[in-house]
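check this one:
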Amino acid sequence: GKSIELLEEEGVPFKVAKPDEIELLYPGKLGDSFPVMLAGLVSNLTGAIPSMIVAAASKGRWDILLKDQTTPESLRLVIKQIVGPERFLLPDLLPKLGPLIVDLSDLESEFSKELATLLVLLQVSVLDYRDFVVVASLFRSLQREVLRGESKDLMLQLMESLSSKGILLCTTYEVDPSIVGCFSSIILLHPTNLAANKPLADVLRTMDRKILDEVHKLSEEEGLFISGRPITIRRFRVDDLK
């Protein structure tokens, strides 16, 4: 949320793109698997009918969902906010120097921001990105109560793809513990309410019993870095990362 401000303070060059400038449906370049993955993840999050999402993604036409009476109103509102008159794939928006910031501040709800982020990450996963690291936040999409069945398998597939290419992903303690296995490193920040997510606590305990003890010792200024096999556990001051 503060990325633009921080980059300006440091004098780092960057480019800003709004969601309605990004072509989030483009079957010609995104491949045959894209519509199916999109349908599985978006239908689970919004309640939309998967076959209609596949049809829209296969033809690159958001209006198919807007015209369909079964499309949930929450999804309609997001589509209207992210479909602009002129749109480009992410590679065409990347600056020659510095990062591309996808600015979600104009979107009206947290749900809209979550869905827009998910759509951008889907595009990142199916195109060949090897020269930069993606930084993003996902919350409800990764919660235990949301992930189930086929959509859970698709989300794990997406996270593994993004992790292999390079991603820093921010989420909450409500995350489904299966997501942990997709990443080589984890950072836990205070407060980490593991009492509210026993399955996640159990996974961390399985990795190394010392992790839970270290989590309880964290102050508001500290984080816990967990990485590698055998497991490396390090406490650090958040201010030291600036």
In short: The first strand starts at residue 15 and ends at 17. The two ends are 15 Å apart (CA to CA).
